[in-house]
Automatic annotation (TrEMBL):
Organism this protein belongs to: Metamycoplasma neophronis
Protein family (similarity comment): Belongs to the DDAH family.
Annotated coiled-coil segments of the chain: none
Pfam families on file: DDAH_eukar (PF19420)
Alphabetized InterPro entries for the sequence: DDAH-like
Protein name (record): N(G),N(G)-dimethylarginine dimethylaminohydrolase
Keywords: Hydrolase
Length: 264
């Protein structure tokens, strides 16, 4: 299908705020995140990323935005070409985009930074890059107008946009993640979508559904800790360095490995 893209050189993360205990969650039964533990997990996440050969930019925490460690939602970066500032679809998160802008400006000049404008909304967690194609989930956070604008921005740099209807999951990448080499982790509502039929699908059972959110970083795949079947399935592909990171405190806020960074 697609060629292996250039290696990622940079990653942006944002330190979790103590206010994360008040972050948005669909799973209050998991309890509130333990902040001290979340910090340690974030430290380990940064180290794991560094071990993949990327430079990590660490944005300071901002207590005003309980969910702001989930920095992926604030932007989409077309590696080496343009950055697209999102317009996050949750009201309590929308201001996070203004926090991210100065960091995008460190890497891109103003002619190469585009913005999704209201009434368009878009969360970066809804965007999955597969070579020159960008799948985008039509979720509660990303609306049709946001997708229209995203499509038009991508067209300027010759990239394709494929909208993906969805009704159950928070974000597209909650349930489907690309590991390069045509390998796709896939779960839940996306399982029988014709859109994804030509990928080599690694089906993630509901019992380990959270681990459908793994990240590929320069031929390393990072898998969340505690999901043995997914870990084995990724290892059995036989082509990756595979490591794990514990994200238990972020799971309590519906956040996974991809949500915690922008990789480009
Ligand atoms: C939220 O509901 O926005 C956060 N609690 C979780 C965001 C997770 N981000 C992602 O999947 N990209």
């Amino acid at each position: 299908m697609s060629q292996l893209k250039d290696k990622f050189k940079n990653v942006i993360v944002k330190r979790p705020a103590a206010s994360m205990v008040d972050g948005i969650t669909s799973a209050p039964e998991l309890g509130k995140p333990i902040y001290e533990k979340a910090i340690l997990q974030h430290d380990a996440y940064i180290e794991a990323l560094k071990s993949c050969g990327v430079a990590v930019t660490v944005c300071p925490k901002n207590e005003d935005f309980p969910d702001s460690c989930f920095v992926e939602d604030t932007a989409v970066i077309v590696t080496g070409e343009i950055a697209i500032l999102s317009n996050p679809g949750a009201a309590s998160r929308n201001g996070e985009k203004l926090e991210m802008l100065p960091y995008l400006e460190k890497f891109f000049d103003e002619d190469h930074i585009f913005k999704i404008q209201s009434p368009g909304t878009m969360d970066g967690g809804d965007v999955m890059m597969v070579g020159d194609t960008y799948y985008i989930g039509m979720s509660e956070r990303t609306n049709r107008e946001g997708i229209r604008q995203f499509h038009n921005i991508l067209a300027k740099v010759g990239k394709k946009c494929i909208p993906v209807p969805m009704t159950e999951m928070l974000h597209l990448k909650t349930g489907v993640n690309y590991l390069e080499h045509n390998n796709l982790l896939i779960s839940g509502e996306f399982l029988h979508y014709p859109t994804f039929k030509d990928f080599n699908q690694i089906v993630v059972d509901k019992s380990e559904g959270y681990a459908a959110n793994c990240i590929w970083v320069n031929e390393t795949v990072i898998v969340p800790e505690g999901y043995p079947n997914v870990l084995k399935a990724v290892k059995d592909l036989g082509i990756y360095r595979v490591i794990t990171c514990d994200t238990s405190e972020y799971k309590k806020l519906d956040g996974g490995l991809s949500c915690l960074s922008l990789r480009f």
